[in-house]
Structure prediction request, 94 residues.
Amino acid sequence: MTHEAYLNERSTNEDTGRTWYTHKRLRSAYRSLRTNSDWLFTYQEYGHLDLPNTTNSLEGLFSELKRQLHSHHGLNEYRKLRFIKDFLESKTLK
Prediction:
């Protein structure tokens, strides 16, 4: 790997001797890309399914669900799960 030394740089707390990766967020992004690269452009492989190339609509759906759940914050676990199920069923294309 070209930038392995950079990704493996560690910082040290001189008082305690504790070390940590200096570029933790960059390491995390690299690992995510390496792990998920097989699925990164899946929407292009299945063009006939008309898959969106972003998760924006899904995130919008979850935001709406969270807003509605917040309005019903007193529901017990069973009723909350039923609410979520009914909400998702109402949004499913039929």
